[in-house]
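Record 1 of the preview.
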Amino acid sequence: MNEKPTAFDPFQDRLSRDIRNDLSSTFSKALAAGDPALIETLVKSLLTRDLSSCYRDYILSRIDRFRRAFDLIRKSDNDVFRQGFILWDLQLFFEVHEVLEHAWYHAQGEKKLLLQALIRAAGVYIKLEFGYSRQAGKMAERALPVLEKNAEFLGRYFPPEEFLSALRTLDPHPPILLKDPSSLSGLQ
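->
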């Protein structure tokens, strides 16, 4: 007898991983195309399937945050860092990884290193969410030197100390980065 999973876990369950990856890559494509219908279509398709509540809950939680992110990003400039920070504040850490990784491919020098460190920082919270503290700690150790070196750059967007401190201590509650209410309208 096959039992349906009771928890969404992309590290232990193939369907969880497939759903997460499909949603994230489609969201990234929707952002690039400026077409939210791409993600809406995928969500509708997924929700027509006979899925356990853990999968449905994950999908529904994501689509709400995707809509909010899409609106906020559309109203902002094309700054990939700001896009990543908006996604961070919505706790869309896998999507932070997805969006920043596309910029990372084409970046060079210090920008490439900073994008990689931010991807790792998002990875810290992906790992923490599923109880992988040791791996999260290793990711934080690799990200922190570059983030600390670029604290002045990060300061153009947000005061970086709370962010850096959260990574140093593996704070299970990720800090809100963009404190500007116009950037965060509707986030809380």
